Amino acid sequence: MSPHDVWEAFNDPNLDGPGQLATHVRLSLIALAAATAAGVALGVAAAKLGGRWTAFMVVSVSNLGRTVPTFALMALVVALTSIGERPALAGLVLLGIPPVLLNAYTAVRGVDPAVTDAARGMGFTRLGVLTRVEIPLSLPLVFAGIRISAIQIVATAVLAAAVGAGGLGVLILAGLANSDDAVLLAGAVPTALLAVGTGLVLGLAQWLLTPRGLRPRTTSHTLAPHRTAPRPPEKDTP
Amino acid sequence: MPGTPATDAPPPGDVRAGTLELRGVTKRYGPTLAVDDLSLTVPAGKVCVLIGPSGCGKTTALRMINRLIEPTAGEILIDGTDVRRRPAARLRREIGYVIQQVGLLPHLTVAQNVATVPRLLGWAKARVGPRVDELLALVGLPPGDYARRYPAELSGGQQQRVGLARALAGDPPLMLMDEPFSAVDPITRERLQTDFLRLHRAVPKTVVFVSHDIDEAVKMADVIAVMRAGRLVQFAPPAELLADPADEFVADFVGADRALKGLALTRLEDLDLPPAPTVRRGEAGGDVRDRVASGTLVPIGGAVLATGDDGHPLRWVPVAAIGDRVEATPGRTEPLLSPVTTLRDALSALFEAGASHGVVVDGAGRAVAVADVATIGGGLAAPAEKAGDA
Amino acid sequence: MPEIRWDWLQRHADDIQIMTVQHLEITGLSMALALAVALPVAVAVRNRRVPFAVAAGVADVLYTIPSLALFALLLPYTDIGRTPAVIGLAAYALSMIVRNTVVGLRGVPAVVRDAAVGQGLTPRQVLVRVELPLALPAIMTGVRLATVSTVGIATVAAFVGGGGLGELIWDKGIQREMFLTPILAGTVLTTALAIALDALLAGAQWLLTPWARRGRT
């Protein structure tokens, strides 16, 4: 098996690699757009309008979204409806919402009241505070959520093939079924490249969107966005 | 928090204290000299305060002693042994180390924190436990209440007490303290300073103490090392430093009002004052001139002090103005000082009266001595030396 | 709306139990492998900018590659079965553990480290007795996140013959004309497993970090 064999397999008219790639990208984009719109709208609304109960619900739903396996979720949606592209899309949207929702909620809630207060004190209008302060400060975190969501959607779209929605997973499953490494890789390599590319592009966008003063030196994965590394003990000067 | 240590008694056994000597110690960072040719000796059991503005190299100097920073040149000796003769970690276990933010290990209890060095030194468990309790009691934290707490459960002052206990745990001959009391509020600081001094009297370790606070330095130090831009500007006991700053920088750093505070530590009776140049009213002018010629009577500014028969001062009389007899009507002799007047009050009285010298009178009002500005200033070293000999 | 076939679940209880145990084994092996690789790497790169960027970058790329594609990429080098699944899942978990460990180690206050060195702890003692214990909450956060993700993604192991609860969803469900009962059972069991393991690890963290739950009184 050589790179040439893989390339041949990818272009095999029966497998239609380019077509599956296009389907994969299309499914991912639609799902991401819908998940982003829903996640941001719900997150901002929850942050602006909700109280404690809302906060609890947001965190619980997001945590549940984290623990329910994406593959199982999509399989479940399809099993409850029908095989095909639409149910698969619905599954992808559903799993894409929690990261965006949680981050949008946290971002809007997290804007330091002192900062908005100071901005208003300097004479910004309400709209000015929103566009010049709150949105720029929230954007990096919202975008981080979109990135996590995108990576998950692209990854799970591979499994959409298993429920009849097409995409690059078709080649991987065909390769597995026939023990044909060339076909397997003709699906796996573009999938990997697509996912890594998505991660890089969105990561770069996130970095560019972050105001210079807020760029972190070391980032970590967190359970809840505001709980990170242990903080040094507070200084004891009263 | 508890007020004072539960006990002032020294721990059983001999207290170890070592002599510290720095010889030409230099630390260079690229082109800048953080510490430049620093030489000084701290006798065993004494407290040496390193003081100076920020960036003067005092902390760098301190951290070279336990090799947290390695000097570029020079040598550091503890009891005559170069610190570089031993592996750095082993050396540090024998040097107590106390820093401003304390740096207790937050995941260990108070007792475990204090036990750190004894355990590193390989002490038997049966020996570590009692030692920890003893030290906690010594720094005023009853072990029953505090041993099992975590650092986060203590106030800043209590944390620093634990820091002190931890530093003393291995019975080190030398303690390094880097602004140990500057992160707490003034009242706690005052209490910690006093308790530390008491503790030091009970357990007289050799201490090198970095501070930026001249009041603290005067209070704590047996000897003060003033540093500026990496160099040692003056190395002297507190009183001497206050009275006789080596240069304008030290004088500025010490500050005029601070000098006055230092002056409050000493009374006129502590000084070697010259006797008052007294002449009796009615004394023969020839006798007066003979006494001046023989040196038994030393006029001040060409004048002598005329007194009544009871020895009470009447007025200053120029020797040249004395004829056959000393004639004097009561006049200006202000200010009158007492042997128990503090130097600060004496100076204040002199300045108020616009006089260069004042008459010291005893309890009966008799003139016994004179005190002038120079004597008050120059005599400041005496009491510190006395304390040093004690 | 199709209904749940309880009789089917009863008949296959033994199979389901075996799959659940397999699922736990895959998860456990993957996490052990991930920790064995990630912790030494994190410790080695913790104080160096470029090596950390390289390690985190590689781990991030592995984290991004879809699990099925990652398993597939491994297949030419391993046999079908548990091996590609465990390696792939471990690779996926690396990023979370490496990043969180480094952040935890870097979060140790400089004064605490300084005081520890000043007491005479050797660099190794500082790492083992001070830095790692203090980084434990951050490390545990990474382990918890990675474990929950791994439990979920381990369902994909069924595609490469790795067994586990994915078999219930894929072999018994999807491949049998979308038979709902095993799919639902697989989903519920995996989710329950993820929540249970997360709670277990949270409990372990609570027990391991007594200092973190005692504040100033």
**What is the number of strand segments of chain C?**
0
Biggest β-sheet of chain A: count, sense, barrel?
none
Report the portion of residues of chain A in β strands.
Answer: under 5%
Low-confidence stretches of chain C at least 5 residues in length (pLDDT < 50)?
none
Order of helices and strands of chain C: HHHHHHHHH
**Mean pLDDT across all amino acids of chain C:** 89
CATH topology of chain A: MetI-like fold
What would CATH call the class of chain A?
Mainly Alpha
The residue fraction in helices of chain A comes out at over 70%
Strand content of chain C: under 5%
CATH superfamily of chain C: MetI-like
Largest interface: A-C, 55 and 65 residues
CATH architecture verdict of chain A? Orthogonal Bundle
Globular, elongated, flat, extended or rod-shaped: what is the shape of chain A? Answer: elongated
Oligomeric organization of the protein chains: heterotrimer
Mean pLDDT across every amino acid position of chain A: 80
What sequence of helices (H) and strands (E) makes up the elements of chain A? HHHHHHHHH
How does this structure look, described?
- The complex is a heterotrimer of chains A (238), B (390) and C (217).
- Chain A is built from nine helices and no strands.
- Chain A is mainly α.
- Chain B contains 16 helices and 16 strands.
- A six-stranded mixed beta sheet of chain B has the order 6-7-8-3-9-10, with helices on both faces. In chain B, strands 2-1-4-5 form a four-stranded antiparallel beta sheet, covered by helices on one side.
- In chain B, helix 5 packs across helix 7 (156-168).
- By secondary structure, chain C is mostly helical.
- Chain C has a single domain (15-207), classed as Orthogonal Bundle (MetI-like fold).
- Chain C has helices at 6-11, 13-45, 49-64, 67-74, 82-106, 110-119, 123-153, 166-170, 180-208.
- In chain C, helix 3 runs antiparallel to helix 5 (82-106), helix 5 crosses helix 7 (123-153) and helix 7 runs antiparallel to helix 9.
- Chain C starts with 5 loop residues before the first helix and ends in a 9-residue tail after the last helix.
- The interface between A and B is small, with 5 and 11 residues.
